[in-house]
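Person: Please comment on this record:
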Amino acid sequence: MDSKTKIRMKNLILPLAFVFLWACGGKDSAMDSDYTQFKLEDTASIQKIIINNNGGSKVTLIRAQGGWEIEGLNLPARRDLIEVTLSTLRRMEVKEFIPKNGQQEVFKKLSVYGTRVEVYGTDSEPLRTFFVGGPTQNHLGTYMMLKGSEVPVVVYVPGFRGYLTNHFNPNVIEWKTKQIFNHHVRDIAWVQVVHHQRPESSFRIEVLSPSRLSLIHLQTGMASAKADTSLLKVFLQNFKVLGFENWVDVNAVRLDSVQQKYPLQTITLKDRNGKETSVKLCGIPLPKGTLNMLGEPISVDVDRMYGILKNGEVTLCQFFTFDPVTVPIEYFQGERVGKP
């Protein structure tokens, strides 16, 4: 290629590059600029995520030994939502740039209404800090902007049809899992069930090894010699996914009365790391004169009960869900027993 040809090509390329940068929003709109680097491919290195907005909503998620937790609440975070958020952080990319004449409006909305996301590794300085806004008009992209930039962009996850705003939710309630127990048998050290109305039916199952289980009678402290191992194994498998229906607000006076008059069972699980998880189940008293479907008077709800968590939160639990783990010790010994 001779020198004249090179000069002509140079004169052609420079104006085209100028037009491209102007259309993308100025000199900072090149595809490889720092403000386009949203994703974090090594999500295993992420130790903390802080999400908050100007409305006062804030949640801090921390990676703990047994999984992700909500800082300050001593509660596990929803595993499904954690997986979605980490996957989004790993895969999200800039889809398109915003025309220069529309950047200022998006910038203002992100500054006022955007959700701030800080992602930390082991250092005190965040790996990424960015702002998440609303969806684009076709709902296939999300307005975002990195901290320190004044150039918002449209971000998406390849292969995902939708916007990403809800993947970074600052509402702590949305992160609180409704699972009380989420343990594989291999992770369980022991499970204990105290029957408050029939203490003689209380027991503890100790996992000595994957193939060795021991059934302990809590009143005597003695191991049962006639426990059905297959039933013990099935019982423990119920703790893989066991949760509640919803949270409920109960005033302190009523809650104290319920715990004294209508206690049912307290279930406690200790995992291999020494962490204990527990729930106290109590009946829900009904107004006088309440009848069941057969027209018979009943004093407590026969479908639902209160579940008081270790941190004091009160939940609504279903008998149908908890019946498999509120059996008496006699159940494992081949005896025919009624519901405690």
Remarks:
- Residues 26 and 242 are 54 Å apart (CA to CA).
